Amino acid sequence: MGFYDDRVLPHVIDVVMNAKQIREIRQRVCSGLQGEVVEIGFGTGHNLPFLPPEVTRLQAVEPSQRSIALAQERIAASEVPVEIVGLDGQHLPLEDNSADAVLCTWSLCTIPDPEAAVREMARVLAPGGQLHFAEHGRAPEHGVRRWQDRLNGMQQRIGGGCHLNRDIPSIIEAAGMKITRLNTHYAEGIPKPYAFIYEGTATAS
């Protein structure tokens, strides 16, 4: 990991991913979480203020040590105990059926093998548990998709491996999970190639 990805990008993401409309999405996606929750792509802890009181513990997976350092103030202020349990969403150091829910926001775009990560989420979910997700990805309009494909290489370089054009529902379903709720929309005020949002829940099928 170079200087930019290690030292600069976490600060940029910390600011960009705390915009008002992003916070509104986080609040919706965190609604209904309870019990033991595993978060894939914890980042700088932006989801912590939106965890319901029914959440008893958050086990966080985050590869960036700089992001974890930036999250310390939010962790200290959180009423939910937070434990950093791993670095790699593709290989979770957790027992089978050990989580009541999994939370994943704006992370499947960056994980090198997102299907492997979703399979791990399904593995650790207890029966009846749900994945709560919010991701950006492949847009429905052909013209927007063309721009996503054109810009994808540059986005990966400046965005720490972030892909603009991943089909999030297809990834989740290909990994063996069943989507139980899905809402899609463009985030306002963001160029369309970067702005198509998937919000939903899924269960292990």
Automatic annotation (TrEMBL):
EC number: 2.1.1.-
Protein's UniProt keywords contain rRNA processing: no
Domain Methyltransferase type residue range list: 38-132
An MF annotation (GO) of this entry: methyltransferase activity
Alphabetized UniProt keyword annotations: Methyltransferase, Transferase
A single BP term in Gene Ontology: methylation
SUPFAM superfamilies per UniProt: S-adenosyl-L-methionine-dependent methyltransferases
PANTHER family in UniProt: METHYLTRANSFERASE LIKE 7A, METHYLTRANSFERASE LIKE 7B
Full protein name: Class I SAM-dependent methyltransferase
